[in-house]
Amino acid sequence: MTAPTITGQVALVEDDYTLVINRGGDAGVRPGMIFAVHSTSGPVITDPESGRELGRLSREKLRVRVFDVQPLFARAHTFVETDSFHGLLGIPFVPDDDVVVIDVGDTVELIPRDARRTHVAAQ
């Protein structure tokens, strides 16, 4: 059985470590779920033959873990920053001088339990 795919967007940046996503219990979100936050402002990919816009590159900014679920939204704390050394190793996010900017409208996507690294899922 395939796990459900839940996607949405950042609806509110509550503080430096907490955000709200526009999916909640009605969409199947539960506490403990981990979502990847993706940038929506990557470079545009253009077909060199036709000049047609093919889409945008997206990069994962960080991961968040849901701790509060309402019917239509969920609140989540920063869990893993993926653009850093710590993210590459799957170490839980520890703030430092590097700043990851999350914007309202950034996309979020559920990370299926079987796709997580063992040591990340166990925390």
Structure report:
The chain is mostly beta strands and 123 residues long. The protein has a single domain, classed as FlgT, C-terminal domain (Thrombin, subunit H, Beta Barrel), CATH 2.40.10.410. It is 7% helix and 38% strand. The strands form two sheets. It has a six-stranded antiparallel barrel. The two termini are 24 Å apart.
Kindly list the characteristics that best describe this protein.
123 residues, mainly beta, Thrombin, subunit H, six-stranded antiparallel beta barrel, two-stranded antiparallel ribbon, 2 helices, 38% strand, globular
CATH architecture: Beta Barrel
Helical stretch tally: 2
**Beta-strand percentage range:** 35-45%
Which structural class fits the helix and strand makeup?
Answer: mainly beta
Give Rg in angstroms: 15 Å
In the residues, how many domains can be counted? 1
Per-chain topology:
Blueprint: E1 7-15, E2 18-21, E3 34-38, E4 44-46, E5 53-56, E6 60-69, E7 74-81, H1 85-89, E8 107-110, H2 118-121
Antiparallel strand pairs: 1-2, 1-8, 2-7, 3-6, 3-8, 4-5, 6-7
Structure summarized in a few sentences:
7% of the residues lie in helices and 38% in strands.
